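Sequence design from tokenized structure. All designs in this work follow the same two-part layout: the structure record, then the generated sequence. An example of the structure record is given first.
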């Protein structure tokens, strides 16, 4: 078992390998994390782990509020995540490699990172200025028939895109832009579909690529059928990852 200890950045979203994650970092605990990462030499990866929040708040309250206006806001690296932060997070996350960490004049940071490797959360340490975690790196097992499944998922994904874009508009992603490597396909589709966090998390922690693709094929067929029955569709941009508030 290969383990690694990294800074931990909990978010209300799921990061997949190969996907880009822009961050606007303003809380002190995460600003401290970025300052520490900037100490890493430029020729070495500046890595942290991203996990989706199961129970807690991405941004800790900074002032008293409802229901108790006299309550003192929590402080520290584990604020908003309860007495044992390990139980506040989903157990499978993704290592992020920060290509850009830019400090603004006001001390906040603009960060652009890319997901690299899936990891399993083993323990969380809240003794420092920011959370750190011991993580087990997870290999990507292709499973059985990943290649044919990826082809089927791509066909279904194109139909899904066309339905979302509308009959009079071109597809949001041209054929030339879509990959054909099964694991890459599985992560791209998982990130691009309009799914809730628990469903995205289920796809991230699938035991192998083929299982993830089978799940996605069912989801795509179901979602496309639902979209087909709707009288109108909201404008959607599937290729842009959401920017975290922190």
């Amino acid at each position: 078992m290969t383990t690694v200890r990294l800074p931990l950045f909990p978010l209300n979203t799921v990061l997949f390998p190969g996907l880009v994650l822009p961050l606007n970092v303003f809380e002190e605990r995460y600003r401290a994390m970025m300052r520490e990462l900037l100490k890493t030499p430029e020729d070495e990866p500046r890595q942290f782990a991203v996990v989706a929040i199961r129970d807690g708040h991405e941004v800790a309250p900074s002032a008293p509020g409802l229901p108790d206006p006299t309550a003192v806001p929590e402080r520290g690296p584990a604020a908003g995540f309860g007495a044992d932060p390990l139980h506040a997070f989903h157990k499978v996350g993704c290592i992020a490699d920060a290509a850009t960490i830019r400090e603004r004049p006001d001390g906040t940071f603009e960060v652009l990172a890319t997901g690299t490797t899936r990891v399993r959360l083993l323990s969380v340490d809240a003794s420092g200025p920011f959370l750190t975690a011991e993580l087990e790196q997870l290999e990507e097992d292709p499973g059985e028939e990943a290649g044919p499944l990826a082809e089927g998922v791509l066909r279904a994904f194109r139909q899904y895109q066309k339905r979302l874009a509308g009959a009079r508009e071109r597809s949001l992603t041209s054929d030339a832009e879509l990959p054909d490597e099964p694991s890459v396909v599985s992560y791209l589709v998982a990130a691009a579909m309009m799914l809730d966090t628990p469903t995205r998390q289920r796809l991230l922690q699938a035991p192998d690529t083929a299982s993830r693709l089978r799940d996605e094929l069912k989801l795509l067929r179901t979602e496309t059928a639902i979209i087909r029955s709707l009288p109108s569709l909201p404008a959607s941009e599937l290729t842009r990852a959401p920017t975290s508030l922190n």
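The radius of gyration is 19 Å. We note this feature because it recurs in several other targets discussed in the main text.
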